[in-house]
Amino acid sequence: MQELIELLSYDFFRKALLAAVLASISCGIIGTYIVSRRIVFISGGITHSSFGGIGLAFFLGLNPLLGAVVFAIFSGLGIQYFVQKADVREDSSIAIWWSLGMAMGVIFIFLTPGYTPNLMSYLFGNILTVTNTELWMMLSLNVVVLLFFFFFYRIVLYIAFDEEFAKASGVPVELFNYLLITLIALTVVLNIRVVGIILILSMLTIPQATANIFTKDFKMLIVLSTVFAFIGTTSGLLISYFANIPSGATIIFTLVIIFAGMRLINYLR
Question: Which of 38, 156, 163, 267 counts the most CB atoms within 10 A of its CB?
């Protein structure tokens, strides 16, 4: 307990803890929509295509997170456009943008002179290095996501479970699909520093799978997903610090252990 109190006196650890809370909220809400809508692999496509923006930003000497945001939104909208307007199959559209982003990232990083020391933290995450700017960006995202789901909850619910009914009811489904895919892209990218490009998809699915053990209600799924995400990220953060192992991988491993534990408890009940 004394060690924990001592930890909280460090600025970097307080930032990491705050990042865990903010990531839990945005991933809990957006992840519930992704899982309910069954578009997990679209999120995977956006996640990996954002690597192209990171590579381009390194090459141009810009903030890698800014490059990732722009490229993630562009690829998310591109995936949606290809499916709806260009008559490209969804899996093919995802593969195209996924491959393009990864290829561009590799090319631009190769062309960047010198060594890129921060690259690993974007690929695998390092919550202990989160900056004030990134925290403000994560906070802004949380405010936007919370307001969007508060005002348009019923529409989001219709689209998540019955898109055809939503269209028949006069809901501008196409517009909301573009808005939601943009929120997914922002959530993916702004939480990259927590667990990294390689593992961020797990933050959007494992807490939801754990919550799904106990409820099928959409609102409760959001609440429980956020709670499980918070428990997993904070526990993983503490374990990684004391065990001196990578934080991103430890957080995801902790989330998987929680999922397995909840499944076992539910089975024994």
Answer: 156
The helix (H) or strand (E) run that includes residue 63 is: none
CB 188 within 8 A of CB 180: no
Q: Distance between CA atoms of 257 and 231, rounded to whole angstroms?
A: 11
Which of 217, 92, 201 is closest to 161 using CA atoms? 217
CA distances from 228 to 20, 88, 99, 172 (A): 12, 36, 32, 33
In angstroms, the CA 47 to CA 79 distance is 12
Tell me the backbone φ, ψ of residue 213, rounded to 5 degrees.
-65, -35
**pLDDT per residue of the chain (269 residues) written in tens, 0 to 9:** 666 677 777 788 888 889 989 999 999 999 999 998 888 888 888 888 888 888 898 888 888 888 888 888 988 888 888 877 767 787 788 888 888 889 998 899 888 887 666 677 777 777 878 888 889 999 999 999 999 999 999 999 988 888 888 888 888 988 998 999 999 999 988 888 788 787 888 889 999 999 999 988 999 999 999 999 999 999 998 898 888 888 888 999 999 999 999 999 888 87
- List of domains in the chain: 19-196 (1.10.3470.10)
How many residues are given for the chain?
Answer: 269
- CA 226, distance to chain mean position in Å, is 12
The CA-based angle 192-254-27, given to 5 degrees, is 40
- Token pair, residue 211, equals 């919550």
**CA 182 from centroid of its chain's CA atoms:** 12
- Grouping H, G, I as helix, E, B as strand and the rest as coil, residue 198 is coil
Report helix, strand or coil for 207: helix
